[in-house]
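User: Fold both of these, please.

Assistant: Here is the first one.
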Amino acid sequence: MIKPGIYTDLSNKDYHADKNSLSRSSIKDFHRNPLYYWSMHLNDARPERTATRDMILGSAFHTLVLEHGKFIEEYAVEPKKVFLKDVGRETYDAYKSQCEEIEKTSMIILTEEEYLNLLSMKLSIDKSKRLIDLLYEGEIEKSFFWKDESSGLMVKARPDVLHDNIIVDLKTIRDASVNSYQRDMVDGWYHVQGAMIRDAVRTLEERDISTVINICVEKKYPYCIGVYIIDEAALDHGEELYKEVLLNMKSCIIENEFNDFKPQLVGLPKWAL
């Protein structure tokens, strides 16, 4: 169990492994449905969760950009496939030996195409001085654990980059246009994430940061980038939302009752009329 405080050397794996503190994703799961939260986070008999390829590549991109040293330790590129009839015994044996060595490690294996795509995404960032300053001049992957004052529940947040007056989060995205980003912001609770980090800094460092920036890099050529500042109204809404959810979670935990969706009257949505 990780105690309240700020941790500068906690690995991403250990951060996510702590089940005694609530992250944005676990709070979001409860907001969807209390039973869903219980099923995904508290049920000891739940199926093992496996990361999708998109999730793996998103984490790989974060590591490549923000913690390149760890990227080399944690990821390996799959050797280009060759055939004995095309390259001869010596080259083929060397290829097989390289594959076997990689398989013996716990490294995450990327295809050559995936790796080159990640490099191209990173290059689109490195072309911009303003993005380099935002991503490489602050504190990287600092972990905050604190007790929410209203609910008494432990929560946690891990900003990608923290400056004196700016919170920066790096996102991989299908479409970096503003309209698409707004949908992703709402669906992914980016405004809640920003509000939680804002609260973490206020609680543990006793300072206010009102500027939250999402740097959104498209996952395919031409790797366009959107830089979006989440406005204060959205952050305030995110704060109200997650604190309200925490209070509801507290009640469910005390009563040990996690209900499914409630019966309700449903009509046609506006877009169907």
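And the second sequence with its predicted structure:
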Amino acid sequence: MCFDCWKDSLANKIEEEEFNNEHDTLACSIKVEDISSDEAKQNILRRLKDNDPELDKLFICGEDQICDELDFCPTNGRELGWLGYYIGKSTTVDRIYINSTPSPSCNTGIEDFRRGLGRNNSIRSISFCIHRLDGQIFHMLDLFFKNTVNLTEFQAEECELGPEGIRQLSLALGNCKKSLKNVRFVCNQIIGGGQSMDIIAALHMHPQLKELNLGR
């Protein structure tokens, strides 16, 4: 590793540690009622905070989607940021489903969500069902993909992938530790077939794969 790369990596680690320490301190005093006024979202945050063993899956949805008790629809940056923090600290959440990209009202919490989720090591399965799967969502998940050692399943279903989305998806898959065993691309629409080679190259880095599903 070159000196400049090492220096940048060290600076990033120090910055992440400072962020984690700051939020750990805040988490000691903050109440879920201070984060969200919505009782359903308060309940999810409380269960994440308490490491509820029955909360093994979580859906992140959009404002225009019908939600149930396991769906969290962030409507502002504070909700999104603390959601990422509590998922990052969870040791019980096994599966996460991302069904929407954050609305512009959540922009101030994207970095907090990114750094918080980047601490998680319990999630073994991640699924996307987003009409337009773009680069933003993979930026929010880059630390998670780089740091997790337990992710075994990746799925994208009914997504539209443009050139930038495919590039970011390929980077995410390439950055994953060698733990992936099941990858599923089902009913997706790829805009610009040339970029598909990037995904193939990324998957080539995972010789331990047991299943590659390219359904429809």
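The chain is about 45% helix and 15% strand.
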